[in-house]
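Checklist before submission:
- one chain only
- standard amino acids only
- sequence pasted in full

Submission:
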Amino acid sequence: MEPTKKDWKLFRERITGWQEAYMERLIQEYVQFLESDIPASTKFWEMEKKIKNDKRTPGVLIELRKSTMLWDIIQLINDEVITLNDLDGFSEELIETVKYILSR
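Returned file contents:
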């Protein structure tokens, strides 16, 4: 499915806000983890792993390409960065395609 110009524009407008909200949630998770009673060395190495893995997700870092927008949206939903409700305003075709792929 080729995204419409309107969908592409809307995606580019929203992705930054979605990423900011997701990274804020990650930071809160990091804070809770760091406040635990685990030894400092364990916290350090676990945080290093968490950040390394988290920064690979589209919720943190994404290469904006129109050709991969659909798959990026699906990954954002699978990673719980966004929900289907966040697609309000996108074309019905895009939303239905996303729903179809997620249901498979």
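Reviewer check: Helices lie at 5-34, 40-54, 69-78, 92-103.
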